Structure formats: structure tokens, C-alpha cells
Amino acid sequence: MMNGKMSQLWDTKTRDDEWWSSFVTAPLALIANYAVVDVPWITPNRITAASFLVAVLSIFCILIGGYGNFIAAAILIHLSHVLDCMDGQMARYRKVSSPVGSYYDRLTDQVQVTLWFGAIGYAAYAQTLSVVPVFLALIGIAFYGLRGYVKYIAIQIETARNPDYPAAMADLNHVKPTAGFGFGLRANLSWFFREQHKIVFADEGVFIFILSAALVLDQITAMLWVFAASQLFWGIYWSVKQGMNINANRQFPIQK
Fold it and tell me: How far apart are CA 242 and CA 148, in angstroms?
């Protein structure tokens, strides 16, 4: 039954997803998965690889330049992200999720963001003959990487203090569904409007939107200012925040 299968697929959607992923690329991934999730030779790891290859194609389109290639890149970026949502959904639906699959999925995500904005920096330089866009891309990439790095450091330090820390954080991060199949129109509309505040977090889901919008509108230098400013802010914010959290629990000795 269609509703039964789609309901099972909906349960695989990340509960606290990123902004654009939440109501655009993840739902598109669910629709695509409905068609292919039972095809044996299509596996989550192959979808991860396909997502990365499509992202690389989009990067070449950006580097080649020209408005037609920018439009193609915007489409490919969205396709890559839909595939990126599909692999995790499929793994959870089939109950074949693995640490290795999760590792490569997150690794390729990080590489894609770096390559996308490196390519955009080059394209903006080719348009303006100014090194400012390249510098903006560098700032954005560096502080986006810092956001993940301080999270890694904090987890490592807190786990050294308390081996149960990761499990405790996983319990705290568990989000109960508030929308989707089995919920009424009012609940779904409420969920939709609550999701909109996530745009200010400037995470990967936001990148997909601003990258594609900047390419379609041919405003890549302006987008790089937004990217650099947002990542600079959030990189510093989370660095200070994690440092304060660690300091608040400093009564426990830390082994180097």
C-alpha cells in the first residue's frame, strides 16, 4: 500500500533536519526513494558516491563559467543534495545503517562544501579580477571547518571525563516527530513555519539554497560576503560556547 510504504519512508527522515533539507531536498529524496528503495543494486553507499560525483560535476560547471553553466551547476547542486538525503533514508529504511557509511557520507559533505566555495571564489575572481572574493571564500571555508572542529574537540574532552557522554548527548538530541503522516494540516503548517528560523544557522542546507540562488541570479560575490560573514560569526560563537561549556565542567580532571 502506497501510504504504508511512504509512511515508513517518512519515519527515516532526520527529525531535526537543516533548513532547506527539512522541507525541500529531504521530501524530494523521500519521493525518489519510494521508486528505488527496494531495488537491490541501488545501495546507500552507491548513492553517497553518486551524490559526490554529481557535486564534482557542478564544480566543473562553476569553474568553466558562463550563465548557462551556472544554471546547470545550480541544478546539479540540488540533485547532489537530494541524493545526499536519500542515502541515509535508504539505510534506515533497510536497517543497514553503518558507522562506515555515516563516516563517508559526512566526509564527502565536508569536501563538497570546500570545493563548492573554492570554485565560487575562483569564478567571482574571474568576473571581478579582485582577490576579495577569494579571500571571502577562504574565510567562509575556514570558519565553517572550525564549527565542526570545535564540536569534535568538545566531544573528545567530555568523553575523556565521562565515557557515557556521547550516549547522554544522543538521548538529549532525540527529537520526537511533530509533523508528517498521521498529523493534521495545522500541525504540519505549524512545523513548516517553525522550520524557517533555521535559515539563520547558515548550515549546509542553507548553503544549498544560497549557492543555487546566487548562481541563478549571477550574484556570486554578494553571496560570498554572506557566506564569509555567517561562518565567521558562527565559528566564533560556537568556539566560545563550547569553551564555556568545557570550563563549566572543569571540576573533572582531563587526561591529555
Answer: 11
**In whole angstroms, what is the distance from residue 63 CA to residue 36 CA?**
32
Closest of 136, 161, 138 to residue 251, by C-alpha: 161
Torsion of CA 200, 205, 209, 214, to 10 degrees: 80
Sequence-distant (6+) residues with CB within 8 A of 148 are 110
Contacts of 209 (CB under 8 A, 6+ apart): 19, 20
Domains belonging to the chain, first-starting first, are: 2-148+173-231 (1.20.120.1760)
Give 74-129 pLDDT, tens digit per residue.
999 999 999 999 999 999 999 998 888 889 888 999 999 999 999 999 999 999 99
How do residues 134-169 score in pLDDT, each as one tens digit?
Answer: 999 999 999 999 999 999 998 889 888 888 877 877
Distance CA 98, CA 25 (A): 22
Helix (H) or strand (E) holding 246: helix 220-248
Sequence letter at residue 5: K
* Residue in the block written with cell 546539479: 76
**DSSP result, 134-170:** HHHHHHHHHHHHHHHHHHHHHHHHHHHH-TTHHHHHH
Query: Rounded to two decimals, what is the model's pTM?
Result: 0.90
Taking alpha carbons only, the member of 216, 226, 206 closest to residue 23 is 206
Q: Taking Cα atoms as reference points, which of 113, 108, 119, 112 lies closest to residue 141?
A: 113
